[in-house]
Amino acid sequence: MATFKTKFGTGRQDWETPASVFDPLNTEFQFTLDVCATAANAKCPRYYTPTDDALNKSWKGVCWMNPPFGAQGTWVRKAYTESLRNGTIVVCLLPARTNTNWWHEYVMKGEVRFIKGRPKFKGAKHGLPQPLAIVVFRAAMDQIPYAVVLGRRVSFISARTEGRDAT
Question: With contact defined as beta carbons under 8 Å apart, do 55 and 78 qualify?
Fold first, then answer.
């Protein structure tokens, strides 16, 4: 697993999701499995640790995912794939990296909720200095990409420049 040392932290991959982000989502979804956890930061009684290798396991139920920094593409692909099987719902906390391939290939097939402000992760000195989003994958959502902004459904329109996708 890659580690990244940034202004935000020490290269840790196990920052615990703030209760201010997780608790309202847990009330809404009633999570049954945390797929990216440690014993110290797990948000659900059932959870997968790095030793469990969640990327090679089947996910069932209503899953919470706060993936390791720097590996989001792999985890997002897995979350999307798992959501298409057996009615699994996967709710992800992700950096809003709208310029990445994984965002356009997978996130745009889910429900996107942008987070206002800079949530402070447990044990961190400051709030994360990058935009974050909650992404919900469920089988019925893979047809029409949209986002939820201020409680309203908003469709995305691809930017086109001289007959080509803008990059």
Answer: yes
Neighbours of 78 (CB within 10 A): 20
Residue 105 phi/psi, 5-degree rounding, is -75, -30
**Backbone phi, psi, residue 95, to 5°:** -70, 140
Cα–Cα distance for residue pair 78/83, rounded to 1 Å: 9
Q: Give the whole-angstrom CA distance, residue 127 versus residue 40.
A: 20
Topology given in CATH for the domain delimited by 19-165: Rossmann fold (3.40.50)
Nearest to 130 by CA among 142, 143, 119, 144: 119
- Whether the pLDDT of residue 167 is over 70: the answer is no
| pLDDT tens, residue by residue, 60-107 | 999 999 998 778 889 999 999 999 987 899 999 998 888 889 989 999
Cβ-contact 80, 100 below 8 angstroms: no
Please name every residue paired with 146 in a beta bridge, in sequence order, or none if there are none: 111, 155
Domain boundaries, the chain: 19-165
